[in-house]
Queue: 3 jobs
Job 1
Amino acid sequence: MTPATAGGPYKVPRQHDNWRSITLAVAMHAVLLMFLWIGVSWQNNDPVEVQAEIWDMKVQEAAPAAPTPEPAPEPEPEPEAVKPPPAPVVEAPPVPREDPEIALQRLKKKKLEEEKAEKLEQARLKKIEDDKLAKLEAKKKAEQKAKEEKAEQEAKEKALAEKDKKKAAAEKLAKEKAEKAAKDKAFAAEMSRITGAAAKGSTGTAAQSTGGRTDGGYAAAIKAKIKSNLVYGSDDDSLSATYVITQLPTGEVIGMRKTKSSGSTAYDSAIENAITKSSPLPKKKDGTVERELELVFKLKEMH
């Protein structure tokens, strides 16, 4: 640097190499702009004051101070979230006081409605119960009627069966009477024939054929045949039954009558079956028979 003239202002000496100075100044400004951009980008760093002096190595005079850069504007603070104001408290309007008479009337009305609803429900339940009882009663009546109809039908069938049974018994009795009458008629005819034949021959033979004392051998022969047809399995030898047998002259049995029971129904039935199976019965040696013959059947003699 050259000293200033006395009494005059300081003057910067003239630079001889302008291009070099311009280049250096541009570089310095570029660096300055870069720092400014970085500072604005960060926003949290304070701006850095940069000063540069230009020196001329030949003149060695101080360059004028660079103008002070204006500070970067601070970023505006973000607005805080605005909270909504609290809702105003609305007080409930005071409940008007109800008239006691109106309240009493309302309670009475409510009670009447409840009682009415209860009565309706009881009536509904009673109707359901009555319907069940009616159905049950109808079912019982139907079952009773069915039983009565069945009993009536069974009674009719039983009466009809009894009637048929009586009719069959009457028919059987009539048939038996007719058969007995026919047998009696045949017996009478046979007796007449025998009697007529005996009148021509000997009267003693006719007397033997119609009655008189029973021949022991004749009775034994009849009992022997009945014994062969007896079916009875008891060993009670005390049993004894007496029967009167009616037969035709041919020995055919046309009837029997029990005059003394043995006390055992089974033994009496066995004797009767044996007599029926033994028809016709044996005759006497002379070929005659006794129309009625009473025989005693002791079990100990029938073995």
Job 2
Amino acid sequence: MYTIGEFGAKTGLSSRTLRFYEELGILYPKQRNQNGHRLYGLEELATLQRIQSLKFIGYSLQEIKEILSNEKITLESFANTLPVQKKILVHKREELNQAIEAIEYVQDLLNDGIPLDWRILTSLLYSMEFEEEQNEWIKEHFEGEMATIFTDIPKELRKKLDKETLFILVDVKKLIRDQVPAHAPEAQQILVRLTDIFLQAIPKEAINNLDEWENQLEATQPDDFDFPNFWTSEEEAYLEEITKVMEQNYKDEG
């Protein structure tokens, strides 16, 4: 028989962890020495090994407690729970991979010298986390080719275009800070760059449908889904002013 310290040293667990397991009721030493100290033996070792095995395949301590304390749970009935447990672990793995990818992407942006604030960072991470939900929204609100074009953009191209957009955002913030008017050439160049990003995202043969897409955009209700947005209301207003100036210039030239 071993004291809690001796048992912990042999099993690699701290006395604090063993006491915690006792408080949860999943590993309770039945014997004590004459001084009232807990004593652990082969029975406790077998229970601990079962706990560690179940933890290894992803069961929570609460689930382990239920398995150990429920006499009706046989090895056969336990085996029936494994497919569900596998699905849970696969989902967790996918979430972890997604989180790691997001971290690497943010580090890449910082390494490229793109200044990030909380608004931009939150938008980026939200967009990556809820990409599937956003694609579903697009499929629901847009028809045919337009929906598939925006949902089928390759991930690497999407990251590239996001990065280019962030560089433009940096320039827009500077133009606003320097109070550069919308009719200035450097301001109008912003819209040219944004248009180029849009054209990179769609196939060349789809450009002829731009009028139809514009009608679909006007028919959607943006409030139905809160898309992450890099831009502040001030920056959006500035871009809208640039667009109006360029449209007017186009009409005057025509």
Job 3
Amino acid sequence: MDVTLRQLAAYAAVARAASFTAAAGEMHMSQSSLSRAVAELERTLGTRLLERDTRNVQLTPAGVEALRVADQILSTHRAGIAQLGRFLAGERGAVALATLPSPAAVLLPPVISAFRARRPEVTVRILDGLERAALERVAGGDADFAVSTVARPRMPGLELRPLVRDRFEAVLPEGHRLAERPEVTWRELGGEPFLAVGADSSVRRLTDAAFAKAGVEARPAAEAANVATVGGLVAAGLGVSAMPALVHPLVPPGAWVRRPLVEPTVERRLHVVLPLRRALPPGARAFLEQLEEFRGSAYRLPEGVSWDEGS
């Protein structure tokens, strides 16, 4: 049956008002157009819905049931359109965010909290992992965008927006001779048993590059995939390490200290990574707006971390 929403709305208005004249005013339609819509509905259904005379409009038994069904369909339609409107306004739906563990645990929680307070019907799904996994999730469509380091400044199909700069610091056991200094050079750090983060980590890529720039061949005395494990090894006095400032809150408290690393000064740059050929869902756009609001606010980043203004 080719029944339209317009026909159902016209019929429901007449049935409730028991008057074509009153219903036409309510629907902002001419009475002739309203009568035609109701007649088309009756013709499609193959039955009379209304008994009419010059003064009265009464529902037939079929008309009573038709009104119940029409109200149900129109109510569902209005609710669906309202839900679609909230989705398009970024007030419903989901955001899938791929990210490194350190921004997931330290940088993003206050942003997510503020976002959820404003948009409680939007679910935030955090896909934390290493750099390669984060970028692959954006490229493959599993994530709307990512917060990650990027080894190559230009990547096909992806757009990079600078987010924060994250300074590398030496991580030393308490009482270590280098802990007495206000800052430590990479060459000095390379002369100690070095505890490295796993080879798949962006931290490892940057520490290897820093040692090479300093002219030091630092062979790891041990390595672990998890920065918390490396921190525990440092606290146990088994060696020294280097980590960006945003990572330190992930390391359990213990007998270790941190000192700025120099010669060279090394920063890890985190970007918002976006797909170039895929439109962001409204909720994801709203989340990025919330993130930009934090950038422009007085929100204090952890020591050693700063907003990246580019270049």
